[in-house]
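Q: Hi! First time doing this. I have a protein sequence and I read that you can turn it into a structure. Is that right? Here it is:
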Amino acid sequence: MFGKGCHYSVGYYSGQSSSGLASTETFSFESSLKTRATVSNLVFGCGTSNSGSFPPAISGILGMDREPTSLPRQLGAGIKNRFSYCLSPTTSSYVRFGDEAVIQGRNVQRTPFLETRNKRSTTSYALPLLDLSINGRRLGARFPDGIYIDSGSSLSLLETSVYVAVKNSLASYFASFHDVKRSNAREKFLCYSYAAARPTLPTMFFHFNGANLAAPPVNLFFFPGGNVFCLAALESKTISILGSFQQRNVRFVYDLQQKMLSFAPEDCSRDFHQLGG
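A: Yes, that's right. Below is the predicted 3D structure, encoded as structure tokens:
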């Protein structure tokens, strides 16, 4: 089944890695036409040596980047070079292709993929992020290489200068709450504790070229237990990534031919029920 010398090796920014055998196979997909769509000779990898924190429920990683061997690049014109997803915090989420990769409604915003000198932008999806704001106040952050959008990264990463600006802005915001204090409850995370009632939490906006993405409190903070909440983002010395936690309940459509990302708010749990889940 596997030809001699057909191997692959891949490493992820989060530290996981996988290597093994590469082959081709016929894949079948659910279709809105009520019949399965089949595609032959799709390249895939069978990992024989995997390292890192892969949860037991994960049987593999679906490559959706701009590499020639990624699934959308292989499907190409057959899916009109377009795919979408809508991540729900409560139900399963689905990847849609071609004519199914659309946004219903009028609140659609668009921003182009950013082409930079950084080699990562040739394989990943970089977005032209201009600034961040918290509670309506711009931070004056700078993103010369943009920010990479990655559904496979659960938490966002912010380059040090940006992370410090966010930390200072949150410190200023929570200074007006007498019972909200910094907490060391979770190592590496920016956390706060509160004594009585849960405080009103701010919204963060990602200001792109031609579009603004809101990260409401439910997408910006997590509660590890007790009267503690933490920012769902970590500091990075090298890169900024928009992770899946800040993408929840938003429909994203990737147009690889137009090199454009479209998005709009959506109740992503409906995507599950629409498919009969």
